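EI: anyone free to look at a 197-residue chain?
SC: sure, send it
EI:
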Amino acid sequence: MRNKFLRTLATPAVQAEQLRSYGRSRVPANGTATQLLGEDEKAFVAARDSFYLASVNEDGWPYIQHRGGPKGFVCIMNDTQLVFGDYTGNRQLISTGNIRAKKRVALFFMDYAARERLKIIGHAEVLMPDEAGELVANLSVPKGAAIERIFRVQVLGFDWNCPKYITPRYTIPEIEEATAPLRARIAELESALAAQK
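SC: here you go
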């Protein structure tokens, strides 16, 4: 779907900027886009504990919201569909209103430690729990939270970005895992020093 992603977003204005900057347009030729979410994309999404959700309102204003939850809180239903819950505490409902009005979304998944990012575009719908049926059972919920509504995204296309300019960042569990051998060695040396006294 990379071709679908680029063909969808490379409007005439984007193509004009590509020509101005690079002397050529980088839009793939027309044709049938048959690539679906593959195992790499599914595994990447399943390993994320957050992403950024972009939507647009009736006046054309974009809005970006951070979404977080337990790893795997975005559930890949099949090769073209993913779902995630909207937890208690969302009071503004800007994304919800935008999606009900316009449906177009972009999801931006980051792995800061590995310096990788995956962009997905699609059409979303908002479902209340009683409308979602078995979808609710597939969703992870943080401790102390509940799902107030469900977002279902029909994937139109995706694209991977290069790692250039991604500043590596690490979660506390990633830091603990990386430093575990060092902490074990420090404890071993401290024990050896204590035994010599």
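EI: The mean pLDDT is 90.
SC: 👍
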